[in-house]
Amino acid sequence: MLDRLVAKAHENIVLADGTVPNPDRNAPDALTGKVDTVLGILAWGGTAAGVAGVLITGAMMAISMRRGEGSEHMGRLGMVLGGCVLVATAGPVVTFVFG
Questions:
Q1: Which residues have CB under 8 Å from 1's CB, separation 6+?
Q2: How far is CA 59 from CA 13, 55, 56, 87, in A?
Q3: How confident is the model over 18-46, as pLDDT tens digits?
Q4: How far is Cα 85 from Cα 68, in angstroms, rounded to an integer?
Q5: What is the DSSP letter of 27?
Q6: Could you give the CA distance from residue 67 to residue 58 in angstroms, rounded to a whole number?
Q7: Tell me, what DSSP letter sits at residue 37?
Q8: Backbone angle region of 73, left / alpha / beta, with phi > 0 → left and psi within -120 to 50 → alpha
Q9: CB 54 within 8 A of CB 84
């Protein structure tokens, strides 16, 4: 039933000049430069946040050990390092999927 509806819809679609549009995939240079700048700032911010997270987690581990308290900082460190991996691999993953 659905196949017939889709086929019927395609039969009724007629473009004004009878052609299928084929848009250009290249973005304007002005837009590309601005997007690259924003992505660069975001990548820098993600890297800075990862470094800060590792430093803060390390400091918390040292303070807890100094006091003799047991803690679950290794789980927190794992989460921070996982976030660092995501930030570092975001570009290559998107390029692989959409490139």
A1: none
A2: 64, 6, 5, 22
A3: 666 666 778 888 888 898 899 899 989 99
A4: 31
A5: P
A6: 14
A7: H
A8: alpha
A9: yes
Cβ-contact 73, 61 below 8 angstroms: yes
The identity of residue 87, as a single letter, is: V
Please give the Cα distance from 24 to 65 (Å, whole number): 60
Output the six-digit token pair for 15. Answer: 């473009």
Tokens 């993600």 belong to residue? 46
**Mean pLDDT, residues 55-65:** 87
Q: Which amino acid is at 91?
A: G
Q: How far apart are CA 6 and CA 52, in angstroms?
A: 53
Reported pTM: 0.62
> How far apart, in Å, are the Cα atoms of 79 and each of 26, 57, 72?
37, 10, 12
Spatial distance between the Cα atoms of 10 and 23, rounded to a whole number of angstroms: 20
Task: Single out the residue of 96, 98, 86, 95 nearest to residue 43, CA to CA.
Answer: 86
